[in-house]
Amino acid sequence: LAEEEAEEEKKEEPRIAKAPTDGMDKKDIEARTRLNAQLESTQKENKNLKKILAHVKGRLEEINLSNARLLYTNRVLRDSSLNEQQKKKIADMINKTQTVDEAKMIFETLQKTMASTSSKNSPKSLSEAVSRSSTIILSGQRRQENAEESPVTNRWAKLAGINNKN
Q: CA-to-CA distance for 95 and 110, rounded, in angstroms?
């Protein structure tokens, strides 16, 4: 067993030459030095190219994110079912995103949410909101008119001296 283990250890250990040029003639030594120099220059170039690649990759991701933000912002601004305030809110949220997927998710989610809430007969623009009469104001005016027209109320108002009409 000991002999087998010793043989296995010998197989696993690489042969180490005493000097790097032992057993080589001049031609082999020159070829080796040229190859080592070429290896070093290739490794330096490889490191440099990796740095450039990382920089370009980062810049490409920035540009891609910017394009995604612009795409989804333009889609929001062209959507006629949203009012100006909704468009502004969605565009602001999209501009705050950090990734393309996040911009897409916010666009789709907020557009669905805003579209579902805007379908409840709310005014779509400022001019619609101003021109359309509010039901809250009308209901308050009706109550006042009904109160004034009630004979019992008119009688009590007259007795109290509040009503100047009668």
A: 13
- Which tens digits make up the pLDDT trace of 57-81? 999 999 999 999 999 999 989 988 8
Handedness of CA 6, 8, 11, 13 (dihedral sign): negative
Rounded to two decimals, what is the model's pTM? 0.50
pLDDT value for 155: 81
**What does the mean pLDDT of the chain come to?**
78
Burial of 82 (0-12, 13-18, 19+ CB in 10 A): buried
Is 72 within 8 Å of 107 (Cβ atoms)? yes
- Write down the domain spans for the chain: 32-117
> For residue 77, what are the contacts with CB-CB under 8 A and spacing of at least 6?
87, 91
CA-CA-CA-CA dihedral for 8, 9, 13, 15, to nearest 10 = -80
Contact 73, 94 (CB under 8 A): yes
49 DSSP 8-state letter: H
Burial letters 110-124, b for 16+ CB under 10 A, else e: bbeebeeebeeeeee
